[in-house]
C-alpha cells in the first residue's frame, strides 16, 4: 500500500468513526452538541495525517453529521479549527502533547468565539462567548485526554512507524 493510499484510508476511517459515533455519544449544552470523540479524532488526525488533511476530515464529519441530523452548524467551527491547530502544533513541535494543546485552544477558545458569532448571525440566537467556552473546552479536554492515552498505545506506535516509511 502506498503512503498516499494509506493516508486516504486512515482519513476515511476517521470520517466513518466520527460520523458513526456522533449519534451515540454527545453532550447537549444549549444550542450546541459537545462531542468529545471529535476532539479525539482531531488530535489523532492532526498527528498522523497533518493539519490540512485533519481539517478536511473534520469538515467531512461535520457535514455528514449535519446531513444525518446528529450535529448542528456549530460542528463546523468546533471541529475544523481544533483539528487544524492540533495538526499545526504537532507539525511545529513534533511533540504529541502539543497536538492536545492545539486541540484545546482551537476548539475550546477559537471555535467557541466563532460559534458565538455563528449563533448570533446564522442561527438568530444571541449567545455570549463564554457560553461556548465551557462546553467546547470540556469536550476538547475530554477528547484530548483520551487521545493522549491512545497515543501511548502500541497500535499508535505501529501506525506512526508505517507513516514514517
From TrEMBL:
Q: Which Pfam families match?
A: ThiW
Classification via InterPro entries: ThiW
Q: List residues traversing the bilayer.
A: 56-86, 98-123, 129-151
Q: Which keywords fit this entry according to its UniProt record?
A: Membrane, Transmembrane, Transmembrane helix
Lineage top rank: taxon: Bacteria
Keyword Cell inner membrane in annotation: no
What name has this protein been given in UniProt?
Protein ThiW
Q: Which organism is it from?
A: Acidaminococcus intestini (strain RyC-MR95)
Amino acid at each position: 500500500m502506498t503512503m498516499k493510499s494509506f493516508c486516504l484510508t486512515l482519513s476515511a476511517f476517521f470520517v466513518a468513526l466520527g460520523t458513526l459515533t456522533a449519534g451515540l455519544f454527545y453532550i447537549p449544552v444549549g444550542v450546541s452538541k459537545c462531542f468529545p470523540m471529535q476532539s479525539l479524532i482531531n488530535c489523532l488526525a492532526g498527528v498522523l495525517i497533518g493539519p490540512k488533511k485533519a481539517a478536511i476530515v473534520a469538515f467531512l464529519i461535520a457535514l455528514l453529521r449535519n446531513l444525518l441530523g446528529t450535529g448542528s452548524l456549530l460542528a463546523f467551527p468546533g471541529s475544523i479549527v481544533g483539528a487544524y491547530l492540533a495538526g499545526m502544533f504537532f507539525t511545529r513541535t513534533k511533540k504529541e502533547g502539543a497536538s492536545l494543546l492545539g486541540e484545546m485552544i482551537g476548539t475550546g477558545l477559537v471555535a467557541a468565539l466563532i460559534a458565538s458569532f455563528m449563533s448570533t448571525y446564522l442561527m438568530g440566537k444571541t449567545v455570549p462567548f463564554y457560553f461556548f467556552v465551557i462546553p467546547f473546552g470540556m469536550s476538547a479536554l475530554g477528547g484530548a485526554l483520551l487521545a493522549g492515552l491512545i497515543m501511548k498505545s502500541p497500535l499508535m506506535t505501529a501506525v506512526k512507524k508505517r507513516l514514517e516509511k
